[in-house]
Amino acid sequence: MPGGAVVITGTADTSRIEAPVTVKAYLMCAFAAFGGIFFGYDTGWMGGVLGMPYFIRQYTGMAYPNVVYPDTGSDAYKAYKKTFHLTARDQSLTTSILSAGTFFGAIIAGDVADFIGRRLTIIMGCFIFSIGCILETASTGLALMTVGRLIAGGGVGFISAIIILYMSEIAPKKVRGALVAGYQFCITIGILLANCVVYATQNRDDTGSYRIPVAIQFLWAIILGTGLFILPESPRYFVKKGKLEKAAKALANVRGQPIDSEYIQDELAEIIANHEYEMSVIPQTNYIGGWTNCFKGSLTNGSSNVRRSILGILMQMMQQLTGINFIFYFGTVFFQSLGTISNPFLISLVTTLVNVCSTPISFYIIERLGRRTILIFGAMGMIVSQFIVGIIGVTAGKPEKKNNPATSAMIAFICINIFFFATTWGPAAWVIVGEVFPLPIRSRGVGLSTASNWFWNCVSSFFRLIFTPHCID
Ligand code: BGC
Please, what sign has the CA dihedral across residues 185, 425, 320, 322? Predict the structure, then answer.
């Protein structure tokens, strides 16, 4: 294998291969996890902005209801107020166009990450995202906002796919699950921050109402992009490229050990041996062949590429089909539709807080109980709580019954549902995607799985519009 003058020695003692986990290793991964803030914040702000009076007036050209009908108690006022919103088509366009951008961004990102490296791809994602963000901030109409969302989505696609790849490759094996779960934690913080900012600006009667929440995103791009200039490249990327000297340096950097220490030598030898083995069983062909490699092998063989790709894609699909984003995208309108809640926004905020506060439990249980076990328990918990919400919703909790205790019970079980998601499927789906692919197909596999997340994210919002259009029109 090419790669410079390093001489790699190794050990057969696999229990001793990794260096002790240093504070530096934790900090590096914690910083990389910051990319989750983009994901969460971008997911979170649009729903709130769509409900802002100034934004609606600006984007539809309609006058404020109290200007057209000063008598706010009149039927005419009430009827007009009901029509004061963007059409369902425009709402779904502005919401889902982001997922279209992220879908393509995530698919392309894998190839880019193999070509220019993981770190530079994330930095590039921050740059693309910032261009989209400029257009969104500048927009005063639907066309520019849509283009801006599409481009920003492309950047989020790059970031969301490659952060997982990067973190899985630099995190020490012993705590990889917990550290990648940190990414999920940042997603939840991003959603919470978006909710808080939108709450604070919702009643402004100027462009600041929507421009402030949009422009705050620059901050995330600047922090992540600048920080990544300082962080090292993934040693596995260098091994893949045959640059062993650089790989050794990067590994020494992420493990906080001298380059010639036995830990670094042993771990590098293991990475190289794994890669060489994987290369020997996965034929290296042209560009198209590289993609078809992701689907090679037998469906009945649990460790074949095709089975791993299907696992990653379905894992993300099922994560979205838990319906979690119904609460985070449309929670406010849903709580409004229950008819007994005086401050639906506050309840929405509570749901995002439950999400944030429950996620750290996963740091512990994901390593202690294992990925599969928590997925099974999480799914069972969500099934039971969703059934209960559904049963109450069509019986004692029907909006026309105005039954406060029943509504409170529904909210409680919605929060329990979020708790089960946040401690299991939320983080575990990302951890598994980061771990399941062998190096030769890893970047594309992670890209495909992330694209699947965004695809189903978009599809599930779309179905929500079909099944509950009354919340909008
Ligand atoms: C999902 C997002 C979701 C978030 C909620 C993530 O793992 O992929 O779609 O909004 O969790 O915390």
Answer: negative
